[in-house]
């Protein structure tokens, strides 16, 4: 399945007055725009929403394509910088059996950064849950546009980065805690022929935020909770 890319940018045009707060969201696959939504919220009038899909959107000018290529490049640089810091801070990936041993013998804590619903279905015993991403909660023009972007692909539970992630971790774990960060299937810092910079994931982004905020003993669960379950290691669930 081709990967999807969502780009949200503020914009201003002659159609909208300068007092408007305007936002354009584009969802792309294989270089083609599949969905585009524009939202404005002027201070003196009701909100206006315009939507275009790939079947009705006119061809893009060369300048727009160049800007979007640059935005994709910025995202890649962003992950490269995260990876460099993870390597500099000696964040190491451990397989699920080693993670279980570290948890039992060395007082490591598994920090599960999946959504709460996934955590409750099944997680390693003793794991702590702090969501890296959470369901979109607000109803601003920005949030409505993002909801529409998800809904276009039949996803009616869109997520956003959890702005309280670090604060929530700090309430549960001090900076000296020994932490193994886990998500569903994890990414990797190991280079491959197709992915020379590895591949980012929720758990690697979470690990980056932890070391950036002073946590000193951060590890990454290779293969994530999927690999943990596949190996038949113990899991527990929480009843609603």
Characterise the protein shown here.
The chain has helices at 62-88, 96-105, 116-121, 141-152, 165-172, 202-212, 224-230, and strands spanning 4-10, 22-29, 32-40, 48-53, 92-94, 109-112, 128-129, 133-135, 159-161, 178-182, 217-221. The chain has 240 residues and is of the alpha/beta class. Strands 5-11-10-6-7 form a 5-stranded parallel beta sheet. Strands 1-2-3-4 form a 4-stranded antiparallel beta sheet, with helices on one face. Strands 8-9 form a two-stranded antiparallel sheet. α1 crosses α6. The radius of gyration is 21 Å and the shape is globular. The chain starts with a strand and ends in a 10-residue tail after the last helix. 28% of the residues are buried. This is Rhodanese domain-containing protein. It comes from Thlaspi arvense (Field penny-cress). Residues 104-237 form the Rhodanese domain. InterPro entries: Rhodanese-like_dom, Rhodanese-like_dom_sf, Str14.
Compute the number of strand runs.
11
Give the low-pLDDT segments. Answer: 1-22, 39-75
Largest sheet: 5 strands, parallel
Distance between the termini: 33 Å
Order of helices and strands: EEEEHEHEHEEHEHEHEH
Query: How would the global form be characterised?
Result: globular
Brief account:
This protein has 240 residues and is α/β, with parallel strands linked by helices. Helices cover 34% and strands 23% of the residues. It contains seven helices and eleven strands.
